[in-house]
Amino acid sequence: MLVRTSPPAEAGPAAEAATAETESAAASAETESAGKEVRRLDQVVIRFAGDSGDGMQLTGDRFTSETASFGNDLSTLPNFPAEIRAPAGTLPGVSSFQLHFADHDILTPGDAPDVLVAMNPAALKANLADVPRGAQIIVNTDEFTPRALTRAGYRTDPLDDGSLDGHSVHPVPLGTLTVEALKEFGLSRKDADRSKNMFALGLLSWMYHRPTQGTEAFLRTKFARRPGIAEANIAAFRAGWNFGETTEDFAVSYEVAPATEAFPPGTYRSVSGNLALSYGLVAAARQAGLPLFLGSYPITPASDILHELSRHKNFGVRTFQAEDEIAGIGAALGAAFGGSLGVTTTSGPGVALKSEAIGLAVSLELPLLVVDIQRGGPSTGLPTKTEQADLLQAMFGRNGEAPVPVIAPATPSDCFTAALDAARIALTYRTPVLLLSDGYLANGTEPWRIPQTGELPDLRVRFASGPNHTLDDGTEVFWPYKRDPRTLARPWAIPGTPGLEHRIGGIEKADGSGDISYDPANHDLMVRTRQAKIDGIDVPDLEADDPGAADGDGARLLVLGWGSTYGPVTAAVRRVRAAGHKIAQAHLRHINPFPANLGELLTAYDQVIVPEMNLGQLALLVRARYLVDARSHTQVNGMPFKAEELAHAFEEAIRHA
Question: Where is this region: Disordered (predicted)?
Fold first, then answer.
């Protein structure tokens, strides 16, 4: 955890330009240390790549943890295949982990790596196109055998044929060096070779002056039942560090100072989107004074939420791994009927299976959180890749008129706040709420300021406790669909409360009494009332970031984003402004209902561009609702946008306005 004790310096135009993600990691100072040159950088992007069995995700995670403890701002992008164990040495089996860290505020995991660690030929081939000329490539030469080269699709050895001449290549026999370092442990060559990722981690930790104590403590904890393996991995890690210190091939190491002015004061930790969302759900239940119930069926990339929440029984959390998606949401809806904060987690294919039960929750008007960690589709699609293509499904993917609030977090840490907001809406308005995260947010990490309890919203609810309606004959009764005139929410009655017996089910209810009704006029009234309830949800107005607007010199182009596009879009907007152009930005969290001022905001600009990781779903909604000429900029390649690509698109739009 990181403790900030001083407030950040006031940021002005100069500071914004200084922190814009427009420059490569340029050296700003050079010193001499221990006989080797030490260069100071403002930011670095590192990518670890290898077979899915090479431990690249663990290696990247450990480097990230040490970077967070050092005090840098950071953003990560894990990228791994869907196969449990793809064929070794093949392109489909390559797993990578990219980390961007800096001494200032950053927003994305970086467009291109400054350093690529390639554990085999396939890792090199799969990632080389992203590596700019002049970048460093650390290659595990032990794996560059004729057979491995052929399997990766190489006709000649790239280490010898000149194809890497534009890069700074460091050939390192990682396996051989690791096996040599672990001789005293009596391990087989195969077992010793498995620690080569720790050797690579030690080398990179030396190159960038990362702390080491946390990794050593982690390894001792991870292998507590096998202390010999723990010490072997620590020895490999230290050997990598010492190799960097002593070899002549690495004449320079680098320093990236802590981001002392990037964060408000507080206690920080590194957090992924799924972890932040889990913590947000626990916090929401505690603030509401309700038990938390998760009914879920495992599905990538949402399963981590089930895993995490299962660890928090001490906070009144109950988790149920159901036999299928329908059972998961059915159990969560039943828990909501019983007075719990009901949650179900899934991805796009699971939302399709849950659609009828979501419609049932709309009809029952019970609070329920449906968390969709979006992935590439359709059908099974790309389980480990990201996409934003479930928006229209979230809006309309149910039979009949079944409106559901939709909100979307912007960053991994924002998943915590979004979970609280979703719970607020569900509890206040007695409605299911769809929260749209995605694989990029779920697996990516960034620093998160741990809030104080007093900063969290009060979500306490009042259950019905007695009759709420008087019949014509003077009899006092409980009407389950008699509404709060402000929110249009119906009362929430806990089963077993004396005198509050009421009918519940999917057949249309009579207004007020909740009796089954087939009356056409009543159905029309109930449909319109449920829609009015959603339309009336209290969401804040949308604010545009337009520096010149206050002086009447605002931009003509507005970039409208939602969800995980926030980081790349904001980074691109910074680049465009640093180049001297005027550009405005607004980012939606609430998509249903839209903020009340969205139409007015959109019509204030000559051009509106909507970047999305789909084929233009938000743009479709905006064009239909507000009749504005919102233009899409889209991609559906399973990866987040690159800031450079977006900046180019925005500059083109400005030039051709």
Answer: 1-36
Give the C-alpha separation, 414 to 343, whole Å: 18
pLDDT higher than 80, residue 12: no
pLDDT(359) > 60: yes
CA distances from 156 to 50, 128, 146 (A): 20, 15, 9
Phi/psi at 357 (5° precision): -70, -30
Token duo for residue 262: 């990037």
pLDDT at 503: 84
In the predicted model, what is the mean pLDDT of residues 90-104?
97
Alpha-carbon distances, residue 344 vs 249, 323, 611 (angstroms): 52, 13, 29
Inter-residue contact 40 to 71 (CB < 8 Å): no
pLDDT at residue 265 greater than cutoff 70: yes
Helices (H), 294-413: 303-309, 325-337, 348-364, 391-396
Any residues with CB less than 8 A from the CB of 347 and at least 6 apart, and which? 299, 300, 301, 302, 372, 373, 374, 375, 383
Span between the terminal Cα atoms of the chain, in Å:
47
Lookup: tokens for 331? 């159990």
Q: Is the pLDDT of residue 124 over 80?
A: yes
Residue 588 above 60 pLDDT?
Answer: yes
Query: Do 602 and 626 meet the contact criterion of CB atoms below 8 Å apart?
Result: yes
Pairing of strands 445-449, 266-272: antiparallel
Residue-wise pLDDT for 532-570, tens only, equals 999 999 999 999 999 999 888 999 999 999 999 999 999
3-class SS of residue 497: coil
pTM above 0.90, yes or no: yes
- DSSP of 575-635: HHHHTT---EEEEESEEESPPTTHHHHHHTSSEEEEEESSSSHHHHHHHHHH---EEEEE-
Closest CA to 117 of 106, 128, 107, 108: 128
211: its two tokens: 């702390």
Read off the pLDDT of residues 434-477 as tens digits, 9 standing for 90 and up.
999 999 999 999 999 999 999 999 999 999 999 999 999 999 99
The CA-based diameter of the chain, rounded to the nearest angstrom, is 96
